[in-house]
Fold this sequence. Notes:
The chain is α+β, with helices and mostly antiparallel strands. The chain contains 17 helices and 16 strands. It has helices at about 10-85, 95-100, 140-155, 155-170, 175-190, 195-210, 220-235, 235-250, 260-280, 285-315, 355-370, 435-500, 505-540, 550-565, 585-605, 635-640, 660-670, and strands at about 100-110, 115, 325-330, 335-345, 350-355, 380-385, 395-400, 405-410, 420-425, 545-550, 570-575, 580-585, 610-615, 620-630, 675-680, 685-695. The strands form four sheets. It has a five-stranded antiparallel sheet, sandwiched between helices. Helix 5 (about 175-190) runs parallel beside helix 7, helix 6 runs antiparallel to helix 7 and helix 8 (about 235-250) runs antiparallel to helix 9. The two termini are about 25 Å apart.
Amino acid sequence: MKGRERSPVSSPVRSGYRRRLAAFSIVVVTAGLVVVLFAWREADRERLVWEKEQGQRLAQAADLIAGKLLSTLSDLLVRSSRQYPPAGQVTENLTADDRALVAEPFIIRRDGNVTFPLFKPPFRLSDSGSAPMVAPTRGKGADVSEAERLEFIRKDFPGAVLAYRKALTSKPTRSERGRVLNALARSMTKAGRLSEAAAAYRDLVREFGAENSEGGIALGIVGALASARVSESMRLFDDAATALLDLRERLIGGTYALDNNQFTYFLGVAEDGFPASISRVEAGEIRGALEGRHEALLLSGREVLARAERAELIVGNPGPYRKDAVYFSMLSAPSRPYLVGSLPLSEGMTFGAILDSRQIAELLVPEIARLLGLSEGFRVDLDVRVPKASSTGGKQEIWVDDRTPSIVRALAPPLSPWVLKIQFDPSSGAIPRFGLKRVAYVSAAMILVAAVFIGGLVTLRAMAREMELVRLKTDFVATVSHELRTPLTSIRYISELLKEGRVGEEDRKSQYYKTLHNESERLSRIIENILDFSKIEAGLKEYRFERTETGRLTTDIAVRCQEMITPKGFLLKVEIPASLPAVLMDAEAFGRALFNLLDNAVKYSGESREMKLRASADADEIRWQVVDKGLGISPEDKTRVFERFFRSKQAADPNIKGSGIGLTIAKHIVEAHGGTISVESELGRGSTFTVAIPVGMVSESESPSLGNSK
């Protein structure tokens, strides 16, 4: 039944137990911390001893690697001079790894000029501020002068086209012929003959691209840019994009004699014009191919510019590399430092090479470590990046972090500012597991403490449940005693009145007899509930299943309940169809369960004096619903109303009597019949208890109607 909320247990026994548990936990935790502290200190001492020994070993290894690295690079430089000799007679072929290490070979000739056997710079690497030489020109012929007069003064563009064509037949020099062809294409553009102009510009790029215009700019550049503009005017955007990509490719390939500033300018013009052209090309294979080519040119352009950056540093100051012996130095570039090696050749020439620092770190250093026996159990890395302000500055450091005990050393010139790092390979098993020891000790202590706390918590909760159960049983006995006292007192008082003859009127006698009957029934119900609960708790409750007319049983229970509640002013509305089927059940037990639900509705009716008993059936089950408009049940109590001795918060009212076992008994009886019982309730608006019994729970052949069933 609904009933009083359980109060927290705070007895002296429980409080003492909690104090003892807390004291024991503190002792265990303290002891565990002491053990962990000593273990931690011992692991640190072992680590420090091991670190000192390995520091000396790693320092010696770093010195060996640095020395071996310089000697290996010297041998590589000698072999490279035979692969790229000044006279072109190759006497030794480098391996693929050696060629990967040599990023850019170069030769310094006797006159100080620097050449690169494998690289054609896209611009002049010296005198970058000067402009290219303009090709010498002769005086303009009469045909060219007449054509220019028609083009610029008279604005007779068709006439200028004819005049420029005539000038081409006068057999001028190659450079003059290129400039006349450029003027012819320009006049065609002004005359609106765009297709012919585009063809003329393409011929100009193809045949006279290396010739210079009167302004000193290569005609190939002028023709390519003009061709792109004409193609855009003709809405041939793919041709315009192609012209710009061709120009970019020729610029990167060093086709034109440009200085650095000119190269950068025209490369920017080609790059800036491409997005506008490609954006107007319809999506498809052509656009995809153009975009793919553009990406490839971007990548190759970055590589060419990086090589030009390195080469320009050599060309700008070749003097330091003209030594009498093998010489290495670190060449500082904006992006990163490069190692440059040189050695003298015959006839006053010098061979040199810019070495690829990343390939040295990735290929050469691991191979040297392997030759020195450091490949097993070690990892050797060379950091060739530009060092930060926190560089070791030539000092060495060693530390152990349980995974990579390492030594870091800044190499001395000429390998400075490279940093060599040697670390133990944690996968080799050569590193003592100091951290694992610490983790093991800490883990063991934590497990012990956790076990103590969990064990104590489980024990505390078990004791709390037992003590709560004891309290509930005590409350149950007190409640039942009070409920028994009330009908007994009434029976005793009325029987004394009747015995002493103090009631003379027959109407009053009849009323008293009826009261005696009701109180004895109430007393009987209380005793039957107690006996049923005792049997249920002991697992001895038995049921006698017989064929029962459920409609008649429901009507009888409703009549009994109405007789009980009418004097109290309650009204029970009954909705029982005439077609309720007969089923096998223990009628007495099921009636008690149904009566307990009705009695529960009366107790918690609050100000309402109306309840309802509904019954219904279908092919599968019979359902009973007891509906009240009383106090209702809170959501947190609704899941516990069928627990033994449980009474909800609403039972705090002393006028609401109950033992907390009525709903428990009802649930057991319903489930013994193969049914279910549930409750829907809203606080302050009433409750609806629903009982469902399957129609075909027990067939007649399986019926225990002549016997008992637990």
